[in-house]
Design brief:
Blueprint (H helix, E strand, L loop, with lengths): L2 H15 L4 H18 L10 H12 L6 H20 L27 H10 L5 H13 L3 H5 L6 E2 L4 E5 L5 E5 L3 H13 L17 H18 L8 H14 L4 H8 L4 H4 L1 H17 L1 H4 L4
Antiparallel strand pairs: 1-2, 2-3
């Protein structure tokens, strides 16, 4: 199999035959560009064999000196390419079936906002344009990804039942609930003020622009609100998602419910937030320092 030609065909398949986001397609293009860069050296063994795959992984981590997360993503894309090639009959079996290729990622806790940062952000959001103010509210109260928010259509919204239908990664659907009356009121006002009451069900809530244009607009808007709130660090939509998950767990919500809310396929992905809660507990206990309060001596 000509791996360079196969990678180009796979990328065309992803663009036309799969409902992938613009960000995912851009990442795949970068990942496959790395593969072509590797194959530009004729002496290198093709990664289509187990030993060649191992050599490619070692090249990514060694001479290329890529971060473990980047190496993992490059290999995940290659795994998808070989899976497609196997289904197309281009190869007998993916080398990932037998190759021992593992990438260990350093444990990093999700970056959440503190209670003080959230209070400042939500006080200041009221001064932002209505669309950005609503986006911040929905991102935190539902735990949606920003791409999921921008893909939200009017037909996905049921204000009577206070639910949203979310299309997540892998085109998996889930339902989230709008418990807060404030959220429902702002969402209803947004639909009314934009004259969307009789718009087609396929109309996007946040406008017709899709892909990175819409998500970038919300990221910029959130950044401006955070700066106006006096927050020193860079605040991103995903930090609101992290904060939503942590807040729910700290409120005693079962982790399995949080998993469903966030749309995680595996509960192990959700469990990272329990470590955040544990760290906050540790900080609280350290601050209390009950033994020192006894003033023994």
């Amino acid at each position: 199999m000509d791996l360079v030609a196969a990678s180009s065909a796979f990328l065309r398949h992803c663009r036309t035959g799969r409902d992938l986001s613009d960000n995912t397609l851009k990442a795949y293009a970068q990942d496959l560009g790395e593969l072509r860069r590797y194959l530009a050296e004729p002496a290198r063994e093709t990664p289509a064999t187990p030993s060649g795959l191992t050599a490619y992984a070692e090249w990514l981590a060694g001479p290329r000196d890529l971060a473990p997360a980047t190496v993992k993503r490059r290999l995940a894309c290659l795994r998808a390419l070989f899976g497609w090639a196997e289904r197309q009959g281009l190869i007998e079996a993916s080398p990932f079936r037998t190759a021992e290729v593992r990438v260990r990622l350093p444990k990093r806790l999700p970056r959440c906002l503190t209670a003080a940062e959230l209070r400042a952000l939500f006080r200041t959001r009221r001064e932002a344009p209505p669309k950005i103010a609503l986006a911040i509210l929905l991102l935190f109260t539902t735990g949606m990804r920003v791409a999921e928010l921008c893909a939200l259509r009017l037909g996905d919204i049921d204000l009577d039942r206070r639910t949203l239908r979310i299309r997540g990664k892998g085109d998996r659907e889930r339902q989230v609930y709008l418990i807060s009356t404030e959220v429902v009121s702002e969402l209803r006002a947004h639909i009314r003020d934009r004259g969307l009451q009789r718009a087609p069900a396929t109309t996007r809530l946040f406008g017709s622009a899709g892909g990175t244009a819409a998500t970038d607009r919300i990221r910029r808007g959130l950044r401006r609100v955070a700066e106006a709130a006096g927050l020193s660090r860079r605040i991103t939509p995903h930090m609101l998602r992290h904060s939503a998950a942590t807040s729910l767990l700290e409120a005693g919500i079962d982790i399995r419910f949080v998993q469903r809310l966030l749309g995680h396929r595996s509960i192990s992905t959700t469990e990272i937030y329990t470590h955040v809660s544990d760290e906050r507990l540790k900080q609280a206990v350290s601050k209390a320092n009950t033994l020192a309060r006894l003033k023994l001596g």
